[in-house]
Each structure stands twice: as C-alpha cells, then as structure tokens.
C-alpha cells in the first residue's frame, strides 16, 4: 500500500452515520468528523468499549482506530450497526473484535475479556459505556423489571467488566465510564436512569482511590454527556418532548456523538496522565457543580 493509499483509506466517509435504529429521526446522528487530526496517541493499544456499535460508542471507536488502537466492542442487538462500525474501523486499519450479548450478564463480561486477552494479550483501555434509559411520566409506572434492567445494564455491567478485566489491565491502563448530566441535575422522567448515573459517578471516584488500582497506576475517569443526538433519544422520548430538546445550554443546541469522542481519547491517552477520579462534562454549556 502506498502512502497515498494509506491517507485515502483513513479519510472519513462524509455519509458515515449510524442510523439502523433511528428511522424516526428528523436527522441522523453524526458519529464522525472530517476535522479530527489523529496523532498516534493510542498506537497499538488494546481497547475495549461496551456499547460501541452506534452513537457515542461508535464515535469513540472510530477515533481510537484513527489513533492506532486495536478495538473490541460489545453490542446488544443491532447487527447492522455493529457491522457498519466494524467495517469502518477496518477501513481505518484497525484490528477489530465484536461481541454480541447482554452486558448485564456477568458470564458475558467474563467471556468477552477472556476472548480479547486470549487474542491480544492484556488490555490498555476499558470504556464502560453501554447504557439504556426508559421514559416514564410517573414513578408509579416504573416497574421492578425496569429498575432491574436499567441498573443491570448501566451500573452492574461496570462492576462485571472491571472485575473481569482487572487482572489483564496493563500498568498505567485507563478505565473510562460514561455517566450523564442527569447524575448532577436529575431528570423527572428518567428517575431510575438518573439514579444509575449517580452510582456511576460514585463508582468512578471510589474505584480511582482503590489501592489495587493505584498500585497498578490505573487511572479511572468519567465522561458526562449532556444532550447528545444519538439513536437512544428518539427511541426514549415521546415526539412532543423532542421539540426543544437539548437547547437549554449556552450553545443552544444538542451535541453530536463525534463531539464527545475526543474526551475519550484524552482520558485513554498519556495526555491525561495526571487525571484520575474526575468527570469531564461535555454538555454544551450547562454549568454543573460537583
């Protein structure tokens, strides 16, 4: 392959969107920007992203590939999204592994870690990103089954994947969680989801102070998205709730998935070598204390 071919193979497709689950969107979520300039910050790093098939997870996987990483990701159900993302990562020259399953099942987490480490050895970056939310007008409508499902996907999975991965995390590795603006300001129609994100923030802070983590010089941080236009949004909110959605911040608009991904690169790379136990707020100008 010539140098020109290498450059051309890394150019983003202008029409690269994840839209398998977003047919009722007025516009498609954008997971890749033409303006990003990679610098080899994750060259040869082994990275694992839960929920990496679409939205923020796919945007992060793409930047990791551009930065030279090997990328494994999990997904729950959308084979089309997973295949599309996998093909894009391979176009960028990345080695890729994909895993379909339920992150809320500990045996799935153990199998993913086992397969990744058997294939690539140890792990350098673990991104606990997979999550789900369900809109309810009344707390009376939140069933025990919904609570169990939300907590199992959003917070139990972080324990499962972190526990399974810990023996294989290299010294100086990075663990990144995805929390949410709802952990700080709440949401009256996403009560159980907001609760899980409060737990994620505490999980992140506590894990960063754990002696075993510190002894291995592992950094643990979180990214807290504000209103980001992903397939999850129209799948969650009723149409009437989307009219002014995401416009309360200083920038007056919802964000795109690709605008989150550089934060995950920063936390995965040596650029953040003195950062642990912290949360980066990428929310379009909502001032959040804490």
Task: Please explain how this structure is put together.
InterPro entries: NAD(P)-bd_dom_sf, SDR_fam. Residues 1-35 are annotated as: Disordered. Residues 1-30 have a biased composition (Basic and acidic residues). Belongs to the short-chain dehydrogenases/reductases (SDR) family. The protein is an alpha/beta fold. It has one domain (44-282): NAD(P)-binding Rossmann-like Domain (Rossmann fold), CATH 3.40.50.720. Helix content is 38%, strand content 16%. It has helices at 3-9, 55-66, 79-91, 106-120, 144-165, 182-185, 191-208, 211-215, 232-236, 261-268; strands at residues 46-49, 70-75, 96-100, 123-128, 169-178, 219-225, 228-229, 255-256, 279-282. The strands form 2 sheets. It has a 7-stranded parallel sheet with strand order 3-2-1-4-5-6-9, sandwiched between helices. A two-stranded parallel ribbon has the order 7-8. 45% of the residues are buried.
Write the layout of secondary structure elements.
Layout: H1 3-9, E1 46-49, H2 55-66, E2 70-75, H3 79-91, E3 96-100, H4 106-120, E4 123-128, H5 144-165, E5 169-178, H6 182-185, H7 191-208, H8 211-215, E6 219-225, E7 228-229, H9 232-236, E8 255-256, H10 261-268, E9 279-282
Parallel strand pairs: 1-2, 1-4, 2-3, 4-5, 5-6, 6-9, 7-8
Helix pairs in contact: 2-3, 2-10, 4-5, 5-7
